[in-house]
């Protein structure tokens, strides 16, 4: 338990451990624990301190909250603890009527009497398969923090990706020869700009090897490699620019990669909580500076 209306409610000195059990958090185990806790919570909610009423809020992850309020789980037909939106409606973002503590209790009573607690019929009773273990109104239950940044950050990154793609396309379509070399490179080669850059790097390396090679025989081998690379460079031709392989998009991937956020986790829509925290840190001015002070990427 933590006192909420303090400067640092999560500080060690403001958080009080009121119980611990080395068991799995099944509904049955929680029931044993919560029955006792609930009596105290009800007392607290009816307590006044310095002419102020005490309000109790509940925090926890989705799984824990569902178990405490007697729902069969955060998946399935009615995945939301706070309202009666179905999984399908959630994607269409239509608003549905909210659940309340009284609703949960009466839905469970119906489930008990009408279905004889037949869990296969749980969906008919809005997944209320147990009596709520705690008397805290649902509007005093905070949505799990993790689930909020997951969606927001995914959306933010989608927008960033779209913006990066637009810039790449603008550079690609701008045929003005007075612009910097690299933009011409993108216009001239499209998707193959990166292949060309990599070949150029190889050529520079081989040139160095030819110039500084000690033995004459090895110098000869480097020379052959150099000629081969130059031939390949000549063959690299234009392929129209598609979404994503442009330089700005590629740089965005490089930034994610550098901060141990695999870009693949974005494409599969599976940013984890830890990755979201890193992402947020990266968006702060300090994170931005840190990235730029060590950034030695090509000037694309
Ligand atoms: Zn909802």
Please, could you describe this protein's structure?
The chain has three domains: 12-139, no CATH class; 145-180 and 242-300, no CATH class; 193-236. Helix content is 53%, strand content 1%. The chain is mainly alpha-helical. The longest helix is centred in the middle third of the chain and has 27 residues, at 147-173. A two-stranded antiparallel sheet has the order 1-2. The relative contact order is 0.08. The chain has helices spanning 27-45, 62-68, 87-92, 101-115, 147-173, 181-189, 193-212, 216-235, 247-258, 263-267, 273-282, 285-293; strands at 48-49, 52-53. Zinc ion (ZN) binds next to loops. It comes from Plakobranchus ocellatus. This is Amine oxidase.
Strand sequence of the main sheet, in spatial order? 1-2
Rg, nearest Å: 30 Å
CA distance, first residue to last residue: 52 Å
Structural class: mainly alpha
Count every helix, treating DSSP H or I runs of 4 or more residues as helices: 12
